[in-house]
Specification:
homodimer, Tetracycline Repressor, domain 2, 2 domains, Arc Repressor Mutant, subunit A, DNA-binding
DNA sequence: GGGCATAGTAAGTAATCACTTACTTTAGAA
DNA sequence: TTCTAAAGTAAGTGATTACTTACTATGCCC
């Protein structure tokens, strides 16, 4: 009584295994996920996994590499930063984007955190691909605004880190620590509020008056 | 040839096992740590662990409960907030404290993150003990300053979250993602800078002039 | 100094782990 | 239609897992 299972191409099967593994690794970490589990969720024999990947760790690498590749780079941010007229618009938009992305792709953030905690060799690369680029771009933009006299003179890398920190931490508490059970926040408002605090903390009198010229007597 | 090992009281042994387990759970997570490893590090027979704890999970609970208990509560913060004259002093001090504590007790933060990711039932309680209390206190203080007209009118819970987020995220990147390999930050400066950005973002003109009366013509 | 509660251990257990081997089934080119 | 490369699987492997059992050693009180 042979299985009526459809036979698909190696490439497709490989992709499917990666997708299934991503979900499980993100939810349970590397150690917490068994190859048997992955096979069951993919509805294939466990041996098939080892046909596509020499060992579990190789599958983990493939999952992370896949996430790295799939993530559209910083082009969108770069474009927004280049064609930016008002810093407020930029940072409010960015805050919304960061929050939305974390909310929509929780798996990415969990995978990233797990790989950092479990100290996988790839976690550093994963981090560089997903975060470091973003915040170097941001730091450059901040540096330029400091030169313009729009922002106050603080360490640009630190300022960028502070901005992203506010947003990521909010996600951490809401999604990971079950914060949303006790307090529901309107995502729009969260992004706007946090961006506002940060911006008001960064803008100089000049930077402020560029938008509201009436403020300077 | 009997072991020359000293025999210590059950209570002491229990404490020792918890200490050893804490370190391993913090480094490798629950799933990543084996009872055998714990026994070897504690230099006792594995069976002894199960004399003190019915199962591995009970040991994990004990470890987390111990961390919760050992952490001195929010009294220090509360005292500081009550006897506070200048918000700047309070937040700069707090920033330094948060950074110092994370740096000195990395295990606590790792354990907290792991328990959140691994979705242990205790993680919520762990979180409440370690973070929520802090930031409710902080939110209360912020709410009072808003009423005073010292801070701008923003959601106090969100503002508190933003403040702690800046600091915790900095720790995350430096310690977990190996940020300190690429860029070393002076802890003093980090705390002062981040607190400064946040404060300047929160203070009203009134709040500012309370310290610098010359600023208002 | 003898009795005994308990600290401590050696040597297991069944289940599960990542991974292999030896085999069968199928799609598509010829 | 036949042949074959590759998709797919059943049934293992030894190592490791959390946890037990049956035992010995030791400090302490009388």
């Amino acid at each position: 009584m042979p299985r009526a299972r459809t036979r698909i191409s190696g490439e497709d099967r490989r992709r499917q295994i990666i997708d299934v593994a991503l979900e499980l690794f993100a939810r349970q970490g590397f150690k917490g996920t068994t190859t048997r589990q992955i096979a069951q969720h993919a509805r294939v024999n466990e041996a098939l996994i080892f046909r596509h990947f020499p060992h579990k760790e190789a599958l983990y690498w493939a999952v992370i590499a896949d996430k790295c590749r799939k993530t559209r780079g910083c082009e969108e941010l770069q474009k927004k930063l280049e064609g930016a007229e008002d810093p407020r618009e930029v940072f409010t938009w960015l805050a919304g984007e960061v929050l939305r992305r974390n909310r929509e792709d929780t798996g990415r953030s969990r995978l990233l955190l797990y790989s950092a905690l479990e100290n996988h060799r790839l976690s550093q690369r994963f981090f560089r691909t997903h975060i470091a680029g973003y915040y170097e771009l941001l730091a450059d933009y901040i540096r330029a605004r400091i030169r313009d006299g729009v922002f106050r003179d603080v360490d640009p890398a630190l300022a960028a880190r502070g901005f992203l920190g506010m947003l990521f931490y909010h996600f951490l508490i809401q999604e990971l620590f079950g914060g949303k059970r006790y307090h529901h926040f309107d995502p729009e408002k969260v992004g706007a509020t946090l961006a506002d605090i940060w911006l008001e903390g960064m803008l100089t009198a000049n930077g402020r008056s560029a938008r509201k010229p009436a403020q300077t007597p």
